[in-house]
Write a structure and sequence with these properties.
14% strand, Rossmann fold, binds the ligand C=CC1=C(C)c2cc3[nH]c(cc4nc(cc5[nH]c(cc1n2)c(C)c5CCC(=O)O)C(CCC(=O)O)=C4C)c(C)c3C=C, globular, binds fe (ii) ion, alpha/beta, four-stranded parallel sheet
């Protein structure tokens, strides 16, 4: 047997970024494939299984993809879906921040790049210890736990599992709040400031929070810390929840209801909206907020709704994420000099003996 003996390659540390996933193309077929996988996840939809599959296959998959084509087309870039393009930029920026110390991989819970492929790439780069960062500042079973489920399912298929550490949330991380505030302040410096800042998070069904999901509280804490850091007075900011689906109650107040009300009931003319639950811009921010909610606000008599971009691959974001990861990588990054010398000596001895699975010394 002739194989590359893994004991000759030094163990490396990896960082795996996981985001939600997005269609491969703005076409009904690609969107259907994506929604089928995403909406079949029991973490995302907790409805009784048979009933939900009937709804999904009879009422959602035949119609929703076609309706979404136009929405995805509006935000699609030369590099594909914004969520994927920005995630790649984040991966590259973190890779250059860490240099040779850490191999940075990227995967999506649904679609491509798949977790299976990302794990295979990290393994072939020699990664034996891996920090996993779901790109959701606020923990939710629907996103963070779903990413971990997909990761652990993929790891079940691998013979040699890496050592693992996971980050559950970073909603109140000081560097993260600072990055959000700095990004908003520089946006205000460039574009001027609205009369009200709406902090809009993706909604989830209210029942999940009642059953113990910490998402609602973590969103409120992020918003509170951010407003305090920005020095906003009560009344100059508020929190709402966007992108709900279906008829059951989701976390409230709903962004699509609050936004026109800010114009009609509160007389807000210039509204700024920021979405700190999204680490990268995507359909839900670029189309739903920046295009659709902006039109709703104008129709309700508002002058302008401006969407403040997500942290994306901005240097402040990359620095904050790198700092967060460094805290979780403690003990994995430093190889003391005497250990390095010992490892080198051991590798030399191994080279000299050169065992293979069918060498006589092993029989
Ligand atoms: C049906 C249940 C859904 C739950 C629960 C949910 C939670 C949730 N989602 C995000 C982040 C994103 N969602 C995105 C799109 C999207 N989300 C749902 C449904 C649920 N999300 C659907 C059906 C879709 C597809 C688009 C649509 O049909 O409206 C995206 C963007 C993907 C893209 O391609 O750009 C992100 C990101 C979070 C953070 C969250 C709960 C905390
Ligand atoms: Fe979603
Ligand atoms: Fe949506």
């Amino acid at each position: 047997m002739n194989m590359e003996t893994p004991h000759r390659t030094p163990a490396r540390t990896g960082l795996l970024l996981i985001n939600l996933g997005t269609p491969d193309a703005p076409t009904a077929g690609a969107i259907r494939r994506y929604l089928r996988q995403f909406l079949s996840d029991r973490r995302v939809v907790e409805f009784p299984r048979a009933l939900w599959l009937a709804v999904l296959y009879l009422f959602i998959l035949p119609f929703r993809p076609r309706r979404l084509v136009h929405a995805y087309e509006k935000v699609w870039t030369a590099r594909g879906s914004p969520l994927l393009a920005i995630s790649r930029d984040q991966q590259q920026a973190l890779a250059s921040t860490f240099g040779a110390d850490v191999v940075v991989g990227l995967a999506m819970s649904y679609g491509e790049p798949s977790i299976e492929n990302a794990l295979a790439e990290l393994e072939s780069a020699g990664v034996r210890r891996m920090l996993v960062l779901p790109m959701y500042p606020q923990y939710s079973g629907t996103t963070t736990a779903a990413a971990f489920d997909a990761l652990f399912a993929a790891l079940r298929q691998r013979r040699w599992m890496p050592e693992l550490r996971t980050i559950g949330s970073y909603h109140d991380d000081a560097a993260h709040i600072e990055a959000l505030a700095t990004s908003i302040e520089s946006w205000w410096q460039a574009h001027g400031r609205g009369e009200h800042l709406l902090i809009s998070f993706h909604s989830i069904p209210r029942a999940y929070v009642e059953a113990g999901d910490p998402y609602f509280c973590q969103c409120q804490k992020t918003a509170r810390l951010l407003a305090a850091r920005l020095g906003l007075e009560t009344g100059a900011w508020s929190v709402s929840f966007q992108s709900r689906l279906g008829r059951q109650p989701w976390l409230m107040p709903y962004s699509d209801i609050v936004i026109p009300q800010l114009a009609t009931a509160r007389g807000v003319r210039r509204l700024d909206v920021v979405c700190p639950g999204f680490s990268a811009d995507c359909l839900e921010t670029l189309e739903e907020v920046a295009i659709r909610y902006a039109a709703d606000f104008a129709a309700a008599g508002g002058e302008t709704l401006r969407y403040i971009p997500a942290l994306n691959a901005q240097p402040v974001h990359i620095a904050a994420l790198a700092e967060l990861c460094r805290q979780h990588l403690q003990g994995w990054l430093e190889t003391p000099a005497e250990d390095a010398a010992e490892i080198a000596a051991r590798l030399q001895r191994v080279e000299a003996i050169g065992p293979t699975l069918d060498s006589p010394s092993l029989r």
